[in-house]
Amino acid sequence: MINLIIGALATGTAWGLSNYARQRNLTLKTWQWAVTVAGILYAVLVLEVIVGFLAEGAPQAALLMGGMMALVAVAWGVLLGRFVFVSTSEGKEIPLTNQS
Amino acid sequence: MTEKKGVNRRDFLKLGGLAAISLPTLNTIGKVGEDTLYESKEEYGGFFIKKHTKDDPPYDVDDSIYQRFPARNTVFGRMTWDDTIRDTMTNVEPMGAPNEPGYRREDIAFAGAAGTVANAFGSNAGMVGKHAGLLGLDTLGGMNMSEMPSTPWDHSHLSDQEVANITKKAAKFYGASLVGITELDERWIYASYAEMMGGPEGDIVFTEVEKVILPEGTVTPDEAKSRVQTALQSMEAEELKSFMIAAMETMDPDAMPATGGPAINPAMMQAMPAKQFQEMMPMMMGSMPTSMIRLFVEKLELDFEIALVDPGESARPRYLEDGSLAIPKTMKWVIVMAFEMDYDCVASYPTTLGMAAASNGYSRMAFTSACLAEFIRNLGYNALPCGNNTGLSVPMAIDAGLGELGRQGILITPKFGPRVRLAKVITDLPMATDSPISFGVKEFCDACMKCAEECPSQAISYDSQSRTPTTISTNPGVMKWAVNAERCMVGWQMSGGDCGNCIRVCPFNKPESWLHDATRALIGVSSGAIDGLMVKMDTAAGFGTHSEADKFWQKDNYIHIKTP
């Protein structure tokens, strides 16, 4: 059941991001989508690690490993949001470097 | 401005789906240097395995020093003759009090009962003495449902590997968690056996098989039995009944075969339906004594004599007149079995409750070894089922590809770590053998000291491997971490049972899950570079810590036991 919920969360996140990009007319490059999907998969991995260790009766491991991995997941999400999905105007791609 | 076109979302998701489906196909055997990349065998639990050859095993023995070890010098054997050991055992302060978790009556009763099969019937699976009970030398007389094993199984249509696979399947069916097969290395057989409580001692010797040529017209007892059965089965039901009754009337009732029910007598046979004789024939013939076979040969007027000596005797393991255990040199194969111990029970070490895991392991050892030996005997071959006795289980298990030697002096398996008990069956059934393996244990144990730190009696070495023994209970000549067996026994006395702290805390001791499989692959890839970090993380994550006995009893969702 818990895995179903995690899967649903991941799918919902993917759909939500896809929707957001469509509404804002964001045109993401292939590598940006790849990083986004990888980020979602990593978040799934973090949740599965936490759930797995808890199911095994190892709460300390869930806290330590899950916590460390979650920090990375949060940083990943912040970077994705800042450099991939935030747009200042419609139809504009957000470059990482200034365009002339 | 140039419009940049990337892959659209739909196409990308399609590609991603295809990639996800193809990932499992990467779970195939490949090579990274000399190592096998992610061997897909379930028994390897995610580790990268290096397979060794018999000439390049994952251990180092100096044969100029090494000699076969006398079982009387094991710390168990020394209890019968070594006053220093006996004195040490009597002056030890126990760790737990009777009302503490792990030392309560229910814990002790549970642990004691777990060893019932191991200790009943005189089997003593955990000792280094004579073969008896379930681990006896002779057939246990299980139901012989089909042909008698008068001739060896004809497996000429099978390869040696197929025979090995059948044997391993049988062993797992009977209860083994892991199975490996190796050629018998005589170095690992004890020089002698010894009972713990002052029972008989004797040498263990390897003997030649004598070829006995029978005179013309003489057959073995087994062959005679087969020919008599063939003749009787050719009779009609009524004819068979009349013949059997007539034969039984001339026989001594005490010599009649047992069939599991009341003793058979001519009056009872007269009342039996004729058809029942035909149905009972295979079962009766299986336990028919030679004296009755002689009578049937005479009554049936069959034209042969029965040999007085059993020409197959020298091919069987047996005790000689001087008490030596004779292992025929034709018994060249060893089937080594590992039995997983319960993870939660092991977590309660060093309390008496933890002993239940080991005792349960010993019981399963006795049961499974006995069944496997009977299976082999039913195939017409010879089998010697062993618990801890007769041979050193750890090097045999290493040769059979079940694992590596750990710092705590026991076998570490890829899947269960050190959380196993070992048994073996020595046989003359020819089979394909397995290769020894290594998967990073030595490098990891060099970095990790958890077992040494957690040993309550400080019996485990903190040093590098050496050939120097610590006590007379260590056999010199083997490059290893020498455990001080005397101090280890003190730890046992302190714990009130068999202390297994070194098993509990070992980082290789993990339950089965994809989480640990992934970690194992990482350890394998790193080739020892991150072992120190893995040990620290293992400790920080709380693995290997002692678990209260109450937690063991409460773990099952259907049982809630209140502590007093």
Number of helices of chain B: 21
Oligomer designation: heterodimer
Straight-line distance between termini of chain A: 52 Å
Structure summary, number of beta strands of chain B: 16
Gyration radius of chain B (Cα, Å) is 28 Å
Give the CA-based shape of chain A: elongated
The tally of strands of chain A reads 0
**Main sheet of chain A?**
none
Poorly predicted sequence stretches spanning 5 or more consecutive residues of chain A? none
**Largest interface, counted with CB-CB under 8 A?**
A-B, 22 and 16 residues
Mean pLDDT of chain A: 84
Query: Average pLDDT value of chain B?
Result: 83
Give the proportion of residues in helices of chain B: 25-40%
Give a description of the structure.
The complex is a heterodimer of chains A (100) and B (564). Chain A has 100 residues and is mainly α. Chain A has three helices and no strands. Chain B is an alpha+beta fold and 564 residues long. In chain B, strands 4-11-15-12 form a four-stranded antiparallel β-sheet, with helices on both faces. In chain B, strands 5-6-10-9 form a four-stranded mixed β-sheet, with no helix packed on it. A two-stranded antiparallel sheet of chain B has the order 1-2. In chain B, helix 7 (221-233) crosses helix 11 (290-299) and helix 8 (237-249) crosses helix 10. Chain B contains 21 helices and 16 strands. Chain B has helices at residues 9-22, 75-78, 83-90, 105-114, 116-119, 160-174, 221-233, 237-249, 266-271, 274-286, 290-299, 343-346, 352-378, 393-399, 441-447, 450-454, 485-495, 501-505, 514-526, 531-540, 549-554; strands spanning 30-32, 35-37, 50-51, 178-183, 192-194, 201-207, 218-219, 305-306, 318-319, 325-328, 333-340, 383-386, 404-405, 411-412, 420-427, 437-438. Classes of the chains: A mainly alpha (100), B alpha+beta (564).
